[in-house]
Design brief:
alpha/beta; three-stranded antiparallel β-sheet; 16 strands; 13% strand; RNA-binding
Length: 561
RNA sequence: GGCCCCGUAGCUCAGUGGAUAGAGCAACAGCCUUCUAAGCUGUGGGUCACACGUUCGAAUCGUGUCGGGGUCACCA
């Protein structure tokens, strides 16, 4: 039906141009919410009424007659009705809707996917410092980032997944110190273990594991580094390097369990060693966008819309967090990524204006509004009616791996993608393992498994369904299902545009509901061969779209459940 | 106090300036000798926080108020 819709849109555009030159470029169809309002609707008459100084209903009447005389409308449209203040409600012939089944079966996993557009996008996400296992917030970020990458891929982008982290800094020093203490036999709670409000120590049990392996002179290998422990408890530098490699490897295992992979790991420390931080600062100073005050170097970020100026270099000579971030984004730009999306927690929102201001102040040709940000809120975990706040492994927070082990990769991904990023999410562990209608991931997967079961009972080759006669598909549930299938490509491109994977989860629930209704209303494996093949084609197409959508979310589509 | 996000059915949440604002859960009433009942069908439930404005039309855009959350160099 997509090509049907394109044909009709072209006709509408031509008619609008005839009424008012230039108006055709804004031609569009809406999808009415109420079935009684038809399959497609145009609001053009109401929009043009004022500029043309005509009565909108009369305008709609003229438009209706012109459209009815066109070749494409005569072929695909059953009726055009004028409603309310001037809506044109278009009801399609069943043949128009049946076309979608052919399109889906012919295109398979490519259905909804755009041709390569030759553009690259870098998506930065997770970016956890190697100080512990990934927590559920990182999980939300991993699910979001990976799904957004998949969405970009469907729209023809060449996608690059990047993980940015700091392997130096204060937190890493704390990590090394904590590990050293555990290696020396000091435990949290002991007199000489750091405690209190500003405790500079990590209390999780995983620190003891690192200390043990360090003393055993083990070698650890992560996706981006490898290191062999010296085993010398006094060698803080070796402890630091070993702990970082160890925890990077732990995080790799977390990500592996979640089926998320990265193309690159970028080190904050490299921005210093390569001189990129200095060079960024020098550019900004040279541009006259800084000043000295109270022993610090300030950025005139208010020149770029920030609500106050920001410290770049503190009194002790070190830089504030956003400065290396500015250098990092200049690096992204110079590496050729002119489209960049950062997935971060809402607690980072304050740095956005600073980073963007710094990028403008550096005058390296980066446009305003670079990069894009997707901010997400926190995740809380409920189990057996109570909030879970700690895990044994990490000490102070629930880990991503805990959640996956309690439920499944599929459930965690689907659940974390079932809300807008800025909606706070309460993850209900009991719901995620429930095997019923309450659990959306099973509901969607079950629709797919049911179809596979029907296809398997039939036993034929799905490929031969691509060209079967579809004219018998006329029932209300069948037409509703086809209409739902037809919405997939537009839903996908809108979701990519808005960085909104949750659109996909909502769509899949709707599609699964349409299928379950259809399944209940109409038996598929009937005696009459032509009818059976047409119905098989419809459900095979449905399974294909379910698979495509689930793949975007990184959720599996099981054939049996 | 400055900035950002949020306020929609009893609960959890969707909702590209369009028509009678939707879904799931919860409640109630039904549907399995037939392809997976992990399913389906139906019923009830709303001052879209509030006020004003923009316009043919506002849950959606603007301004303000109230309420909730986040954040504000010397953590990252």
């Amino acid at each position: 039906m997509l090509f049907v819709k394109q044909e009709l849109l072209a006709t509408l555009a031509a008619e609008l141009d005839r009424l008012s030159p230039g108006a055709g470029s804004r031609a569009a169809f809406e999808s009415p919410k109420v079935a009684a309002h038809g399959d497609l609707a145009s609001t053009a008459a109401m929009q043009l009424a004022k500029p043309l100084k005509q009565n909108p209903r009369q305008l709609a009447q003229n438009l209706r007659e012109a459209l009815q005389n066109s070749e494409s409308f005569q072929r695909w449209v059953e009726a055009i009705e004028i409603a309310g203040p001037g809506f044109l409600n278009i009801r399609l012939k069943p043949e128009a809707k049946q076309q979608i089944v052919r399109e889906v079966l012919a295109q398979g996993s490519r259905f909804g996917v755009q041709a390569a557009n030759g553009q690259r996008v870098l998506v930065e996400f997770v970016s956890a410092n190697p100080t512990g296992p990934l927590h559920v917030g990182h999980g939300r970020q991993a699910a979001l980032g990976d799904a957004i990458c998949n969405l970009f891929q469907t729209q023809g982008w060449d996608v690059y997944r990047e993980f940015y982290y700091n392997d130096a800094g204060v937190q890493i020093a704390t990590l090394a110190h904590s590990t050293q203490l555990r290696a020396q036999g000091v435990k949290p709670g002991d007199a000489n273990w750091p405690s209190g409000e500003n405790a500079a120590a990590y209390n999780g049990e995983y620190i003891a594991d690192i200390a043990e392996d360090f003393k055993a002179k083990k070698t650890v290998k992560s996706d981006d580094r490898a290191y062999t422990a010296s085993g010398d408890v006094a060698d803080l530098d070796s402890i630091r390097q070993f702990a970082v490699a160890y925890l990077r490897h732990e995080q790799d295992l977390d990500l592996q369990a979640f089926a998320v992979r990265f193309d690159n790991y970028y080190l904050e420390s490299s921005l210093y060693t390569s001189g990129r931080v200095e060079s960024a600062v020098n550019r900004i100073v040279a541009a006259g966008k800084t000043y000295e005050q109270d022993g610090a170097l300030w950025l005139k970020s208010t020149d770029y819309g920030d609500d106050k100026d920001r410290v770049m270099r503190k009194g002790d000579g070190t830089y504030t967090y956003f400065v290396p971030d500015v250098a990092y984004h200049i690096a992204k730009w110079e590496r050729g990524f002119h489209k960049v999306v950062n997935i971060q927690g809402t607690d980072h929102h304050g740095t956005i204006a600073r980073v963007r201001a710094g990028l403008q102040a550096a005058h390296v040709g980066i446009p305003e509004g670079y990069p894009d940000y997707v901010l997400h809120t926190m995740v809380r975990v409920m189990r057996a009616g109570e909030e879970v706040k700690i895990s044994k492994r990490a000490g102070s927070y629930v880990t991503l791996r805990d959640l996956i082990e309690w439920t499944s990769k599929d459930a965690v991904r689907f659940f974390l993608l079932s809300r807008k990023p800025d909606t706070e999410y309460v993850f209900d562990v009991d719901l995620a393992v429930a095997k019923n209608n309450d659990n959306p991931v099973y509901y969607v997967q079950y629709a797919h498994a049911r179809i596979c079961s029907v296809l398997s009972s039939w036993g034929g080759d799905v490929a031969q369904l691509t060209h079967v006669e579809l004219a018998s598909l006329q029932s209300v549930p069948a037409l509703a299902l086809m209409l739902q299938l037809a919405k997939y490509p537009e839903m996908l491109s809108a979701a990519a545009q808005d960085f909104a994977p949750h659109d996909v989860t909502f769509y899949l629930r709707d599609l699964a509901a349409s299928y379950h209704s259809y399944y209940d209303a109409e038996r598929i494996l009937v005696d009459e061969e032509a009818v059976k093949l047409a119905r098989l084609a419809l459900v095979a197409a449905t399974a294909q779209v379910l698979r495509n959508g689930l793949a975007v979310l990184g959720v599996s589509a099981p054939a049996k459940m």
